[in-house]
Amino acid sequence: MSVNLPPKQKTAILLMSLPPEASAEIFKELGPEEVQAITTEISKLPQISPETRAQVIQEFLNQDGGDAPRPFGFAGIGGHSIGGPTGIGSVPPPIGGGFTQTAPMTTSSSNRPLDFLRRVDPRQLLQLIRKEHPQTIAVILSYLQPSQASAVLSDLQPQVQTEVAKRLAELHPVNQEILAELEKVLESRLHQALEDGAYSHADGKEALLEILNQADRGTEERVLSGLATKSPLLVNNLKTKLCDFEDLNNVDDPSLEQVLRLTDFRDLVLALKGADENLSKRVYRFLSPDVARALRDDVESLVQVSWDEIKQAQQRIRNILRGLVTLGKIKFR
């Protein structure tokens, strides 16, 4: 059934219903005018009902692969396979994306356990699992995206946080039958929460922020530049939440300590290889002498590493920072 909405709005709904990382990949390939048109439309979207999302997705799937080069007659996404590993065909829409027969939130279409949780907002996910045993929480976090898991971990009660972190470090492969049962329980709980109205559906601005959080720096700059002429206030609002790795220089000491505590040591080595001297010195001061010495030695001995690897590590740390900013855990100096 066709949804009676303008083509631009359908495209915006489609992209905000994809996993953020998939939408970010699509934005990479679009021209400046298309980026501006789509992001402006996404930012104007109100809360979209699950039924509308499901209908838009189904309409797109019915057209994709047909004669129309551009689904909905708009936006240069016709050449992109959105039915692949990061698209609609293999993952359900994000939380609030529709629990109907046309676009169910199930795990059967993905090979990755607990995959449907990767599209749940960290704050909502915390409410979903906070009463679980630390071992169960550790298992769940191990299947999330790193930035999502770090945001949830950082908001747990201190004593629970320590216990979960310890169990994560010691985690062994989990029996598939146990995972399947855990999936059923969590999915049922999530359905119930949505039916009870416990979780609100993300609006366009929230969806755009999630997409930009997954985008590389070039894509982010193109999107913000395209929006700047038409929506300067929106751009300013987004920029306050879109921190970069270099912004670690501007956070207060407790905030920096939080980020470092959630950062993988290898990522820190790679990131500091391309960091400015002031930030590196500040990081070293936060560590014990032995750890700081080991870190400095690893950074200095790192020779055969590409700039892409360095930027990817910095981006992972940036995502941790952004997750903490979203949760209100970061203070700037």
What do these coordinates show?
By secondary structure, the chain is mainly α. It has 3 domains: about 1-110 and about 200-240, no CATH class; about 120-195, Annexin V, domain 1 (Orthogonal Bundle); about 245-333, Flagellar motor switch protein FliG, alpha-alpha superhelical domain (Annexin V, domain 1, Orthogonal Bundle), CATH 1.10.220.30. It contains 17 helices and no strands. Helix 14 packs across helix 17 and helix 15 runs antiparallel to helix 16. The longest helix is centred in the middle third of the chain and has 20 residues, at about 175-195. The protein is globular.
List the helices and strands and how they pair.
Layout: H1 7-17, H2 20-28, H3 32-44, H4 50-63, H5 122-129, H6 134-142, H7 146-154, H8 158-169, H9 176-195, H10 204-214, H11 217-228, H12 232-239, H13 253-261, H14 265-273, H15 277-286, H16 289-301, H17 307-326
